[in-house]
């Protein structure tokens, strides 16, 4: 069974770009538009292998979502990498403290994204 | 700002945070041992190899094992070069590169990506992410050492250019003497601040009597004082200025600019009302008013401040500054060392005054000024004894401007000195010409001398020369001087008056009774004539007080052997009254208003043909009053 990756980004273009790369590599993709949807997707997909999450999003930002999940103690086994235009060290530090496994600054390089995903989630199938 | 070349130690955290030293660091002339390199690789062995190779040739090396630590190290060490491994954990090399470029000073550093030799695809992506160059792994140490040295030399040239650009930008927006923002900077600040806001006040600060400091202690001392004033005002408030281009960091931060000379503009964007503005102004006045130690001299200088609220200016920066300017002049006019608020009336007045000043300057150049003559008449014989020369201003369209309107402006601007000189020349030349005509002989012309003219250092010398060049007999000239002129500096007044007396001209005390009217003046100063002001003459028949004062003044003048001339005589009854109490001469509409020279000549000739003769008075005796025993 292929591994599932949750892609959380308010930009449809980014979600599509990421999905194409992941699907070509054989992953299943679940998309979410903001932190609230993202948290729900994580809850509803307990078998997912990884979440790729934006930082600045409406309703609930990526860092806040991460912190909420980490505070609740749930889904802590799901690795999360942040994919964002932000590069401020204090934000990166916050993500790491909340358990994020990586941070990538957009625009992303598909091979780099895949290499990171494979390193954390393992191969697609 | 400190000089860039002196900096060798790493910047403090504070400096890093403010970004104040980055340009200095990267711009400094440096050798390899002053250059810092950040090496980022999670492979400790590879990292150490690179670090050692660089240390070997003198570089200061900082190491980091991942992207996040690399960013932190960049913030605290400000490296000139960062060597980034592409595949670093948590934050990859490309991401690190992008984030690094966004850090303060990140645009100034050289960033070199270390990648595997076959990773061609990464090159374009890395350049897009902001990489300066690439090194392929495994890194050749010799190549690395030389590449880094070469890169630093190249970077230095670029940095010098960048530094020059910044310096030029700084100069364009800053005052060279104080380092404060200049007028351009103020305009930009105001544009950014916006004038469609409810808060904010502008303060125009002008030092009082600064010229005197320059004159007394020299210009370099004056410059020192200006700098100190700038520091004091800056010290009073939280003023945030970005070191590079004078742009303001905080929306709520105050702003101080030097417009030039001794003029500063302070803007406080948080002031909500006039009362708050007054408190701010009071703080500035107190700071400026403290004793200065100017090269061992303790001096105190005050300032006048004009204030205007942003909310009142209806969105125009220009109007805002004009308002503060008008208010500042108002403050100057009121004892100085104070702050004034703009008001509409003030602006109209200031504008009118400014326009008047401009036209008055051209009036003198374009011969719009004229000297009129008003005859003085002997109360007993009705003979013409002389005339008072009076200045008139006729615009090209024929309109006459009242002396009451333009004389104060001339006084304030100092134009009165040139104008007064011109009137004296005109009058002396005219009277000299009349002396050639039998009908006009023996007339004495009185000319008003303003306080400023009187205090001019060369006033007496110039008059002596004027008398010599025109050939006018000094006894034909009388100078009318007001009490106010004498009051400021009685010692000087005494000296000038006695010199004038030595020249042989007549001296009249003008407007007697309107000012402080110290009777002592009459005794102490060598006057020949006392002029009774028109305000007493007007009410002499109706007001007992006026009548009594007039009678007393005339009696006293007689006792002192002074001639008395009453001004503003309009009726036969006034004339009769003045004659009876012993006033010797009068002038006024009853006989003739002030008229142009030609008309005056005709008027005098006409009276002579009607057998009313010119009646020459006695010549003045030098020091005539000195023999009279003091009365008061």
> How many distinct helices of chain A?
5
* Span between termini of chain B: 67 Å
Beta-strand residue fraction of chain A? 15-25%
Overall shape of chain B: it is rod-shaped
User: What would you call the shape of chain A?
Assistant: globular
Low-confidence stretches of chain B: 1-30, 242-250, 616-632
The rounded Rg of chain A comes to 13 Å
What is the helix fraction of residues of chain A, given as a range? 40-55%
Helix content of chain B: 40-55%
Count of extended strands of chain A: 5
Task: Calculate the mean pLDDT score of chain B and round it.
Answer: 82
Biggest contact: A-B, 17 and 23 residues
Order of helices and strands of chain A: EHEHEHEHEH
If you average the pLDDT of chain A, what whole number results? 90
Give the class-level CATH name of chain A. Answer: Alpha Beta
Q: Quick gist of this model?
A:
The complex is a heterodimer of chains A (125) and B (632). Chain A is α/β, with parallel strands linked by helices. Chain A has helices at residues 12-24, 35-44, 62-72, 89-97, 110-121, and strands at residues 4-8, 28-32, 50-53, 80-84, 102-105.
Describe the fold and architecture.
The complex is a heterodimer of chains A (125) and B (632). Chain A has 125 residues and is α/β, with parallel strands linked by helices. Chain A has a single domain (4-121), classed as Response regulator (Rossmann fold), CATH 3.40.50. Helix content of chain A is 44%, strand content 18%. Chain A has helices spanning 12-24, 35-44, 62-72, 89-97, 110-121, and strands at residues 4-8, 28-32, 50-53, 80-84, 102-105. In chain A, strands 2-1-3-4-5 form a five-stranded parallel sheet, sandwiched between helices. Chain B is 47% helix and 18% strand. The longest helix of chain B has 33 residues, at 141-173. Chain B is α/β, with parallel strands linked by helices. Chain B has an eight-stranded mixed beta barrel with strand order 13-14-16-17-18-19-20-21, surrounded by five helices. Chain B has a five-stranded parallel sheet with strand order 2-1-3-4-5, with helices on both faces. A five-stranded mixed sheet of chain B has the order 7-8-6-11-12, sandwiched between helices. At the A-B interface, helix 4, strand 5 and helix 5 of A face helix 4, helix 5 and helix 6 of B.
